[in-house]
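Suppose a classmate hands you a notebook page containing two proteins, each written out with its sequence and a corresponding row of structure tokens. How would you begin to make sense of it? This section walks through that situation. The first entry is reproduced here exactly as it would appear on such a page.
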Amino acid sequence: MKIYFCGSIRGGRCDAELYGRIIEQLQAYGPVLTEHVGFKDPILKDFEGDDVAIHTQDMAWLEESDVVVAEVTQPSLGVGYEIGRAVAWKKRILCLYRPTEGKGLSAMIRGAHDGKNFIVKDYQEAEVPGILKEFLGSS
């Protein structure tokens, strides 16, 4: 099973270490095509500075993937775009959100939850293994 992981890059890197830990867990289920999202410096040297090349490569990986796992706590236009494309391509999607006082998840994400192909889970990090098992075990 090929997994496309989404997390904020240009929108903010405060969760980069968390992304790396989630990606490590995802790798037990299959290759993560976007493991660089969990790197401290996620810019791929071959694509640095070339937004068209980054978009083209990411869309190819997204189309190739079987499932999408997105950490959506840090708002990101790119992650929202990737999720929208994944919906259009009928991918199974898991969105992970850590509730924070004074902030809320976009209704465009939370409202898309259908319990089957688009799953939104509020979580704390200790819950990630069980959430991934439930989602990826049914793929």
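The notebook's second entry, a different protein, reads as follows.
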Amino acid sequence: AWNDYLEEREEVAFNLCEGVDVRATEAKLHAYAERHASAIAGARAKKIGEKHKAEQRAEGAPGDGPKRMSVVPEEGAPQPGAAQEMPPSFAEELDQQGGG
């Protein structure tokens, strides 16, 4: 069945490109389109839906893709580049306790 489809498809393409039996070939195409109208419509709808989803992903629609981090730091969080008190080293702790 699959090979028959491929042969028929090749024959249609050849006939239309080379101008062989154009009327008969076009009639064959129209008959095929009528027989498979629902499948063709379903494939078109699926393609349109996939295109719409891809456009939404490209635009960064809500709910799609990775979440963005907030650029506003939480209250009490250290500020980038701000001077921070360093914790005492082990040697400094010993000096303060009189063990050094």
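A careful reader of the second entry would note: Helices lie at 2-18, 22-35, 37-59, 90-97.
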